[in-house]
Write a structure and sequence with these properties.
Helices cover 39% and strands 14% of the residues. It is of the alpha+beta class and 472 residues long. The chain folds into two domains: 6-75 and 205-273 and 401-468, FAD/NAD(P)-binding domain (3-Layer(bba) Sandwich); 76-119 and 163-175 and 198-204 and 275-396, no CATH class. The chain has a seven-stranded mixed β-sheet, sandwiched between helices. The longest helix has 25 residues, at 109-133. It is globular, with a radius of gyration of 22 Å.
């Protein structure tokens, strides 16, 4: 197997649980991929390199089936999943309780409860279907099960459904996780899925950082008898040890370059269009962020973008090859709830915005300006910062080409193409489990689980032929 990100680790665990001898190769010094934690600023300040907040991990039926707590993984759920501040010093909030969220939304409260209740009620039926189907990305699958309203464009939906600035802004920020222009489908599906997740399990963080997820998965894999080799970058297929099957946690273009597959399959993989990239900042802080809206202090995640109209403009810009002057910023403040990540009395923060694919621009100044807008005095607290452009993400992890952390564009056409390709390749011994495969991006391990199940079916077929023809 190649790649020890969450999907690669999940695939390796699934093979090992089935009693298969499994070798997992990882280019970096430690496993984790998008779930890693490093001292990016100052000694003792531990920052998540890519993913930081994990609603999909908490919901993942595969992760729930593993004894990860025994291997050191502990979840922390902040009092609020999300706060979305405005310039008047108030904030919309997404709380664990559906009723509490509705109560805070005033005139839109009853509508919020009425719209979200079906998604929450449907989850016990959706989870087994998502865990068993594996053919449709999670957001699109949820949309299809909940009806056409979930596969809609978020901007028009927000204007139809919500009357207040707060509800519209909150919905726009949730939908912006799609990295799509909000007037495009199925951006609303991401708002539905993330809002429902907040009401079902919250938006938890891993104690000690996202690396704890990877470390727990790796520990369980070794416990099952698997072998993990780090610092092993595979540059050509000739480097690969002999194996009956190989599962690749690689981007489509990496897989097309490396694997012995047909030219048609290479063309299909290269036809998967990348999505926007991201620019990211991490800070070592001398004190917590001084939010003007008090509710922001209770939230693990803060969306900084203001109104629906502002977020629309921000998310449209990368698709036009531009960096927004006022970008939509996704910010996490883990040390308010997990003091293990910084020296006593100190804090960290993590934030990113969307940028054009492979953009050379550094959006750090624009990101900090958005934070200062809603938390005056923020810059005075900075002890050190780490800034990553789209190119820095690709240098850190060759799979994150052009800074695309989402596994490709989330348009309906691209999601359908990704579903059609699935986890198999033209080579019956090679399987694929990157974020571009179903059920899509996120730290949930399901892509790896599905790829491993397909590989096990192949191995069982090989074993059956060998039993029928022992001398063959």
């Amino acid at each position: 197997m190649i790649g020890a990100g969450p999907n690669g680790l999940a695939a390796a665990i699934t093979l090992a649980r089935a009693g298969r001898t499994t070798l997992l190769l990882e280019a970096q010094p430690a496993p984790g991929g998008g779930a890693s934690t490093q001292e990016l600023t100052l000694p003792g300040f531990r920052h998540d390199v890519c993913s930081a907040v994990h609603p999909l991990a908490a919901l993942s039926p595969f992760f729930r089936s593993l004894p990860l707590a025994r291997h050191g993984l502990a979840w922390i759920e902040p009092p609020l999943a999300l706060a979305h501040p405005f310039e008047d010093g108030t904030a919309a909030t997404l709380e664990r309780s559906l009723g509490a969220t509705a109560a805070k939304l005033g005139r839109d409260g009853d509508a919020w409860r009425r719209r979200l209740q079906p998604a929450i009620a449907a989850w016990p039926r959706l989870a087994p279907a998502i865990a068993g189907a594996g053919g449709i990305p999670t957001a699109l699958w949820t949309a299809l099960r909940l009806g056409p309203q979930a596969a809609a464009a978020a901007a028009s939906q927000a204007r139809r459904w919500w009357r207040t600035r707060n509800a519209r802004g909150l919905w726009a920020g949730l939908a912006a996780h799609s990295m799509l222009p909000l007037e495009r489908r199925p951006s609303a599906a991401f708002a539905w899925a993330l809002a429902a997740a907040a009401h079902l399990t919250g938006w938890p963080i891993a104690r000690g950082g996202s690396q704890a997820i990877a470390d727990a998965l790796a520990s369980h894999f070794r416990e099952l008898g698997g072998e993990l080799r780090t610092g092993m970058r595979v540059e050509s297929w000739e480097q690969m040890p002999a194996a009956k099957v190989v599962i690749c946690d690689l981007s489509p273009r990496q897989l097309a370059r490396l694997a012995p597959i047909s030219e048609r399959n290479r063309s299909q993989l290269r036809a998967l269009r990348p999505g926007p990239g991201v620019c990211k900042l991490d800070w070592a802080l001398q004190a917590p962020i001084p939010w003007a809206a008090a509710d922001c202090a209770r939230a693990g995640t803060v969306h900084l973008g203001g109104t629906l109209e502002e977020i629309e403009a921000s998310e449209r810009a990368p698709w036009k090859g531009q960096c927004a002057a006022r970008p939509f910023v996704l910010l996490a403040q883990p040390t308010r709830f997990d003091p293990t990540r910084a020296p006593a009395g100190r804090h960290i923060a993590w934030a990113y915005c969307h940028a054009p694919y492979a953009a050379a621009a550094d959006a750090g100044e624009a990101i900090e300006a958005q934070i200062e807008r809603f938390a005056p005095g923020f810059r005075r607290l900075i002890l050190a910062r780490s800034a990553w452009t789209t190119a820095d993400f690709e240098r850190h992890n060759a799979n994150l080409e052009g800074g695309d952390i989402g596994g490709g564009a989330q348009t309906l056409k691209q999601l359908a193409l990704r579903a059609a390709l699935g986890h198999t390749t033209s080579n019956p011994a090679i399987f694929h489990c990157f974020a571009s495969t179903p059920p899509g991006a996120g730290v949930h391990g399901l892509g790896g689980y599905y790829a491993a199940r397909a590989a096990l079916r192949r191995l069982e077929a090989m074993d059956g032929r060998r039993r029928r023809n022992p001398g063959g």
